[in-house]
Write a structure and sequence with these properties.
- A 3-stranded antiparallel β-sheet has the order 1-3-2.
- Helix 3 crosses helix 5 and helix 8 packs across helix 12.
- Helix content is 76%, strand content 3%.
- It is elongated, with a radius of gyration of 28 Å.
- The chain contains 12 helices and 3 strands; from the N terminus they run E-H-H-E-E-H-H-H-H-H-H-H-H-H-H.
- The protein is an all-alpha fold and 245 residues long.
């Protein structure tokens, strides 16, 4: 049976209350394998493993009743461990995203003490709209990476990139209107600036880059109309300039 744990010791080690372990015992979920001469509960190694199963199943959303059914079927431990890890991965990703977003908001608040409720409501509306689109093209891990990248770059860098786009897009539009050859050094320089700004977004990550391109391809009209993004003619020009020479 190995090492035996008194109920108080097990409760403290597992971060639970003695009352919770009593409840699990009454439900038949985790019962002690032995007792002292005085009748006090003693939990063995098998009991500890079973307690882990109960807590893991609880964490991934199963009710105690459902957990009882799973344990009655002697559920194998490996799939449970894998599912538990996936659940924790999702939580870690969500926390990474939340932490990065809080850092961005904190920077904004520190930089502008005059922000009022209307400003925040407008910000929430804009962020929610963008997030709904982003979530269709970027998985949770990618969104966390983007949020952390934004925090690392800082709001000044982000604002600088946004300003650079506002200057670069009209320059490329003028070049296209003037009939500039994509193979010229001037066109290649425009493409170099363009790709540099894109890399600030995806950081050289091919998965982020591909998701970004797919998002734009499927939302080009909306991006052009609502965010003053480039039209397909400009993108084609940059693509040719970037692959020339």
């Amino acid at each position: 049976m190995g090492q035996l744990h008194k109920i108080g010791q097990l409760a403290e080690a597992a971060g639970l209350t003695v009352r919770t372990l009593h409840h699990y015992d009454r439900l038949g979920l985790v019962s002690p394998s032995a007792r002292t001469e005085a009748g006090h509960r003693l939990y063995g190694e098998a009991d500890v493993v079973r307690l882990y199963r109960v807590l893991a199943l609880r964490q991934i959303g199963l009710s105690l009743e459902a957990i009882g059914r799973v344990l009655a079927g002697d559920a194998p431990l490996e799939p449970l461990l894998a599912r538990h890890r996936e659940h924790l991965d999702d939580r870690i990703t969500a926390l990474r995203t939340l932490r990065a977003q809080l850092g961005t908001v904190l920077t904004a608040v520190r930089g502008d003490r005059r922000a009022d409720v209307t400003d925040f409501l407008d910000l929430i509306r804009k962020v929610t709209t963008v997030d709904e689109t982003m979530q269709r093209y970027f998985d949770q891990t990618q969104l966390a990476e983007l949020a952390e990248r934004r925090e690392r770059l800082g709001e000044d860098t982000i604002a600088g990139a946004e300003q650079a786009w506002q200057v670069l897009i009209p320059r490329v539009r003028a070049a296209v209107a003037a009939g500039m050859d994509p193979g010229t050094p001037e066109a290649r320089e425009l493409a170099r600036e363009w790709m540099g700004l894109l890399e600030q977004f995806h950081g050289g990550d091919s998965g982020l880059r591909d998701s970004l391109y797919r998002m734009y391809e499927e939302n080009a009209a909306r991006i052009e109309q609502e965010f003053c993004g480039p039209d397909q003619e400009l993108i084609d020009f940059i693509t040719r300039a970037n692959t020339t020479g």
